[in-house]
Amino acid sequence: MAGPTNPPGGSGKDESINFDDPLYVHPSDNATTTIVTVKLTGNENFRIWRSSMSRALKARNKLGFVDGTFRKNNVETNKESKWERANVVVCSWLLSSISDSIYASHAYSDNAQEIWENLFETYNKADGSVVFNVHQRINSLKQNGLSVSDYFNKLDTLWNEFDGLTSVTECTCEAAVKLNDHSKLMKLMQFLSGLDESYNQVKSHICSWIHFLMLKLFFQ
Known about the structure:
Elements: H1 46-59, H2 64-67, H3 80-95, H4 100-103, H5 112-123, H6 128-140, H7 148-165, H8 174-193, H9 200-218
Helix pairs in contact: 6-7, 8-9
């Protein structure tokens, strides 16, 4: 007697599995999986860590477990155990991505949203010394033989970190546009000032039209 056959084009796997369901956990995404390379160490890298973790969770359709959009009371009673399993996995991902000193304060937490919110409340602070340190590193960074691309990438990383620490309320008014243009000019001059002497001729050429741009910006 012939055994059961798969339907045309079928794989023989359970077709009822919904890979877009937040409750679905891929076999490779278990509780011991490391989903980000950045470890949270404190105020100084919280925004970078949060951004990296948010992307990683969103890619796995698990962001709802931490931002409150997919809570246990959102699922049917017969799926609550699946929610609990997925929640524990997300908890493990969060806890495995923080330093040992921070881990101790959250080791017994069993709700991913609570861990996420507690970390936000504790470390989403622009400590003055941190802001000063980043600003100082920006001002002291020089090319010193690096390739232009490597030098720019280092400077751009510091700029992004500084902008994250000193971010202001978003605005789309005309003044905000001019302020953004001014910020870009300041960054360009910062970049040029750190280039090696071998680029002096290039710097001189660029600076000749920076002056024109600044006049245009402030007297429009």
